[in-house]
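worker-3 :: picked histidine kinase
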Amino acid sequence: MLRPLFGGRARRRWIHLILGGALAMPYVLVGSVFIGPFTGVDNVFGSLPLQLGSFALGLPVAAVTSLFPLTRPLESTAVRALCGIDGDALAHGPARTPAERARTAAWFTLHLGLGGIISGMSLSVPPAAATLIVLPLLAALGHPLGLPVLDHGWMLALDPVAGLAGLVALAACAAGCGALLARWAPALLGPTPQDRLAAAEARAADLAVRNRLARELHDSVGHALSAVTLQASAARRLLGTDPEFVREALAAIEETTRRTVGELDAVLGVLRDGDAPGTAPAPTLAGDLDGLLRRTRAAGQCVTATVDTDPAALPPLVSREAYRIVQEGLSNALKHSGAPVAVRIATADGHLEISVENPLGRAAAPRPGGGHGLRGIADRVRLLGGTAEAGPSGDTWRVAVRLPLKAT
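worker-3 :: tokens ->
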């Protein structure tokens, strides 16, 4: 029951309020400079009403000084550390627009106002409460300190209760003010809806880039490793019986690895330099379809290809994504079946049609972190506004894709 008043979060918020009271002291002194001559009183701090007047006069001055650029970052840092507010709910930089400056001024005034009140209570209530708590003991000792005590025993008995109630009331006021500040902090120190929208768009753009890089790495490196593995395995089996095949397999391994290193460097160049191009261009059907088929066949895989369109006439974006789709289809066939693979590429009704078929072979053993190839194909097709189907069709496994030639 006492945790909301004396728990760790309540204590940290109390400290935050006392910090606001400490920040308010210079403004109270500025206010006293004007209150003293106006009232004709030399000692302003000897009168509680004049102290409150100085405090009220200093708050507008605090609102003006809150326009200093570092005010919002410093206040946001204090709120994150002491009020338990998520950092994403608060702005990190200085206020730039008039609306942001107005909210910062409102927050700074609220923080110093409530902080000054709670700080004053924290200085005055505990000594008074302690005095009330020990009054019965002082009365029993014959008031050795000369403090005035009440003669009625029943009233003396209530003094400790009143002292404890004062301490609880102080804690309740501090907890309530701290909760109020914590509630208002995101509204006054947080980003605007436009800022949140811009941040969400930036995160979405970053995620899109990450997904694109993941697809490129999976398709290029994954296909290369699958092809090299099968090429090396076939070369090892035929090392003593077919030297010519072994020579071709080793040459294919060399070409595959060299080309993949270039593609990997291009992808890593995006990671290093934003969207700056790497040292190797992205492969396309027009540029490397024959090489892709040749390297796949060098692994011992029988691949037949029917191309009923001119790859050079395809839009560059469609040609690039189509290359990756064919590459992933061949990679699946290499990993999951040793049967012949049939690739067909054609255009019809303003679409590029791609199909990769192979007889159903042995089931591949699942591998940790694998199995993203078909999802990558689906992502590429969706981004181009096409359709994709993958799955068994009779005795064959078929990947069928339609891409609009005027992809957006």
